[in-house]
Design brief:
elongated, 76% helix, mainly alpha
C-alpha cells in the first residue's frame, strides 16, 4: 500500500485511499479471481486497478459509499474482462499445428498462405472494439453457437446475433477501406 500512497498528493487523498484499500481489496480480489480463474492474474488486476484509482481518486473521494464501491468494482471487472478478451483473441492467433499428411497433401506454400491469412484476419479482429472481435472469434475460430456465446458472455443469443451482424459489417468496411473486399468477389487477399 505504501507504493500507492507515494503517488498521492494530499493527506486527504492518502487517508481516503487507505480506507478504500482496506475496505475493498479483498472484494476486488474475489471479483477478479472469479472472472480470470487465476490468483496471480487476479492480484495483477487488483494492483492495476489501485494504480488507476490513484489517478482518478478525485472522481470518487467525495461520493457516497455505494458509488465508491460501484466505481471500484466496475473498474476491476472491466480490467479483468479486457485481459480475458485479449487472451482469448491471442489464443486464436498462433500457428495451428499441421498434420504431416496435410502438409504433403496441401503443400507447404498453401499451408503458409493459410497461416498468413489466418494471422491477418486475427489482426483485423483485434482492431474491432469489444465485444465485436470477441464474438467473431468465438463464432468462427471456436465454432461456438449463438447460445454458447451468450452463456459465455452472460447475455442473450439474440444480442449475440446482433453483435455478430454488426461486427461482420464493421469488418467488411475495414476490408473495403484497405482494398481487400469488393461486392462481386468478397474477400480478396
Amino acid at each position: 500500500m505504501f507504493r500507492y500512497l507515494l503517488l498521492l498528493e494530499t493527506d486527504e487523498e492518502r487517508e481516503f485511499f487507505k480506507f478504500i484499500y482496506q475496505e475493498y481489496r479483498q472484494e476486488m480480489f474475489c471479483v477478479a479471481r472469479a472472472i480470470l480463474k487465476n490468483e496471480a492474474d487476479a492480484e495483477d488486476m487488483v494492483h492495476e486497478t489501485f494504480l488507476i484509482l490513484t489517478d482518478h481518486l478525485n472522481k470518487i473521494i467525495n461520493s457516497e459509499s455505494y458509488k465508491v464501491r460501484d466505481y471500484i468494482i466496475t473498474t476491476v471487472r472491466h480490467r479483468c474482462f479486457n485481459l480475458y478478451r485479449k487472451r482469448k483473441i491471442q489464443e486464436c492467433s498462433g500457428l495451428e499445428e499441421w498434420e504431416p499428411g496435410e502438409i504433403l497433401e496441401k503443400g507447404p506454400d498453401t499451408i503458409l498462405e493459410e497461416t498468413e491469412l489466418k494471422e491477418a484476419v486475427t489482426g483485423l479482429l483485434k482492431e474491432l472494439k469489444s465485444p465485436y472481435g470477441e464474438v467473431l472469434t468465438l463464432q468462427y475460430y471456436h465454432e461456438m453457437s449463438f447460445q454458447e456465446i451468450a452463456e459465455e458472455m452472460d447475455t442473450t443469443p439474440d444480442n449475440v446475433r446482433h453483435i455478430s451482424m454488426r461486427a461482420r459489417k464493421k469488418l467488411q468496411s475495414i476490408l473495403e477501406e484497405r482494398g481487400l473486399w469488393n461486392e462481386k468477389e468478397g474477400f480478396c487477399p
